[in-house]
Amino acid sequence: QTQDARPEEEYKVSHLENSHRVDFENSDVSALVSQLEESLKDKKNPTVVCYCSVGYRSSMVAKNLEQFYKTSGKTPVPEIYNLSGSLFQWANEEPVWFSLSMGE
Questions:
Q1: Of 80 and 40, more confident
Q2: 0.85 exceeded by pTM
Q3: Most exposed among 15, 59, 86, 91, judged by the fewest C-beta atoms under 10 Å?
Q4: The CA-based dihedral angle spanning residues 30, 31, 33, 34, taken in that order and rounded to the nearest 10 degrees
Protein backbone atom coordinates (compact mmCIF):
# COMPACT_ATOMS: atom_id res chain seq x y z
CA GLN A 1 0.00 0.00 0.00
CA THR A 2 1.56 3.33 -1.02
CA GLN A 3 0.74 6.53 0.83
CA ASP A 4 1.34 9.87 -0.92
CA ALA A 5 2.04 12.63 1.63
CA ARG A 6 1.96 15.51 -0.85
CA PRO A 7 -0.73 18.21 -1.08
CA GLU A 8 -3.84 17.48 -3.16
CA GLU A 9 -2.64 19.79 -5.95
CA GLU A 10 0.58 17.80 -6.43
CA TYR A 11 -1.25 14.47 -6.17
CA LYS A 12 -3.66 15.51 -8.92
CA VAL A 13 -0.77 16.28 -11.27
CA SER A 14 0.83 12.85 -10.87
CA HIS A 15 1.23 10.05 -8.36
CA LEU A 16 2.26 6.43 -8.14
CA GLU A 17 -0.40 4.07 -9.43
CA ASN A 18 -2.78 2.79 -6.72
CA SER A 19 -1.39 5.19 -4.12
CA HIS A 20 -3.62 6.94 -1.62
CA ARG A 21 -3.13 10.57 -0.68
CA VAL A 22 -2.77 11.29 3.02
CA ASP A 23 -2.58 14.67 4.74
CA PHE A 24 0.78 14.61 6.50
CA GLU A 25 -0.36 17.38 8.87
CA ASN A 26 -3.44 15.49 10.06
CA SER A 27 -2.86 14.39 13.63
CA ASP A 28 -5.72 11.84 13.47
CA VAL A 29 -3.62 8.82 12.58
CA SER A 30 -6.47 6.49 13.54
CA ALA A 31 -8.41 7.53 10.40
CA LEU A 32 -5.43 6.58 8.22
CA VAL A 33 -5.03 3.31 10.11
CA SER A 34 -8.70 2.46 9.52
CA GLN A 35 -8.25 3.01 5.79
CA LEU A 36 -5.05 0.96 5.80
CA GLU A 37 -6.62 -1.91 7.72
CA GLU A 38 -9.36 -2.17 5.10
CA SER A 39 -6.92 -2.27 2.18
CA LEU A 40 -4.43 -4.57 3.93
CA LYS A 41 -6.85 -6.98 5.60
CA ASP A 42 -6.18 -9.90 3.24
CA LYS A 43 -2.40 -9.47 3.11
CA LYS A 44 -0.20 -12.01 4.89
CA ASN A 45 2.72 -9.60 5.24
CA PRO A 46 1.19 -6.12 5.05
CA THR A 47 3.53 -3.38 3.86
CA VAL A 48 3.06 0.39 3.75
CA VAL A 49 5.38 2.64 1.73
CA CYS A 50 5.12 6.39 2.32
CA TYR A 51 6.43 8.95 -0.16
CA CYS A 52 6.29 12.66 -1.00
CA SER A 53 8.57 14.88 -3.09
CA VAL A 54 11.86 14.53 -1.23
CA GLY A 55 11.05 12.47 1.87
CA TYR A 56 10.33 14.89 4.72
CA ARG A 57 6.53 14.76 4.80
CA SER A 58 6.42 11.03 4.12
CA SER A 59 8.90 10.40 6.94
CA MET A 60 6.48 12.16 9.30
CA VAL A 61 3.61 9.94 8.13
CA ALA A 62 5.73 6.79 8.50
CA LYS A 63 6.89 7.87 11.97
CA ASN A 64 3.31 8.62 13.07
CA LEU A 65 2.11 5.24 11.80
CA GLU A 66 4.94 3.40 13.57
CA GLN A 67 4.21 5.25 16.82
CA PHE A 68 0.49 4.50 16.53
CA TYR A 69 1.04 0.78 16.05
CA LYS A 70 3.65 0.68 18.81
CA THR A 71 1.29 2.19 21.38
CA SER A 72 -2.12 0.90 20.22
CA GLY A 73 -1.53 -2.84 20.33
CA LYS A 74 -3.34 -3.24 16.99
CA THR A 75 -2.34 -6.22 14.90
CA PRO A 76 -1.20 -7.17 12.39
CA VAL A 77 1.46 -4.48 12.38
CA PRO A 78 2.48 -3.69 8.80
CA GLU A 79 6.06 -3.16 7.71
CA ILE A 80 6.27 0.63 7.33
CA TYR A 81 8.79 2.29 5.02
CA ASN A 82 9.65 5.78 3.84
CA LEU A 83 10.65 5.70 0.16
CA SER A 84 14.30 6.73 0.13
CA GLY A 85 14.71 9.90 -1.93
CA SER A 86 10.94 9.90 -2.51
CA LEU A 87 9.57 10.98 -5.90
CA PHE A 88 12.43 13.21 -7.02
CA GLN A 89 14.93 10.36 -6.79
CA TRP A 90 12.43 7.80 -8.09
CA ALA A 91 11.65 10.04 -11.09
CA ASN A 92 15.29 9.89 -12.12
CA GLU A 93 15.17 6.08 -12.23
CA GLU A 94 12.87 5.64 -15.28
CA PRO A 95 9.50 5.40 -13.51
CA VAL A 96 5.99 4.75 -14.78
CA TRP A 97 3.74 7.72 -13.89
CA PHE A 98 -0.01 7.68 -13.44
CA SER A 99 -1.94 10.90 -14.07
CA LEU A 100 -5.57 11.60 -13.26
CA SER A 101 -5.95 13.11 -16.71
CA MET A 102 -5.31 9.60 -18.09
CA GLY A 103 -8.24 8.26 -16.07
CA GLU A 104 -8.40 5.89 -13.16
A1: 80
A2: no
A3: 91
A4: 120
